[in-house]
């Protein structure tokens, strides 16, 4: 029996045309599920991006941060009274330092206490090799012009500190630290002692959650010199 394809050659042509057409359709069918999965993956990425932008994922990102400040709720009234005796006594106790740092955060001026803490850590360096990288970090974070957490220093103190960064000593930041300390003592500390959270601690109550307020006007170096004309650096 003769091959029907020889008798009817058009069948062979049709078959050859259908075969590539089948391949194309098969390729499209395979690609469709892949394309359908893309929107889902894109939506997941978008949700993850939005989640990472939430503020709670970035809280506490501070240089020299002292820790969670809610621990101040366990402070006794007797201990809180001691904080009012002197600014030095407040900072010498961890609970006092935490409570004061939390207060500065409500005024958006926590860079002052963070700088003071960083200087305290710097002076505890065990070797000269540790001083240079720490000094550069402190300078770039708190002192140089347009630093991300620039503190309020007079021109002379800033210049003296800048010149010693290349060969830092343990005393490199002493003048700058003392200046910031006095500014906090004269400006922020009195407001802390009259704040609602501190008064609550004196009465033995857990401090209420402080509301954020706009940055208050702090003393500048010039203000401080007017108030105390005998002040010299």
TrEMBL record:
One record GO biological process: negative regulation of signal transduction
Record flagged with keyword Isomerase: no
Keywords (A to Z) from UniProt: Signal transduction inhibitor
Residue intervals passing through the bilayer: none
RGS domain boundaries: 86-202
PANTHER family in the cross-refs: REGULATOR OF G PROTEIN SIGNALING, REGULATOR OF G-PROTEIN SIGNALING 18
Protein name per Swiss-Prot or TrEMBL: RGS18 protein
Protein source organism: Hylia prasina
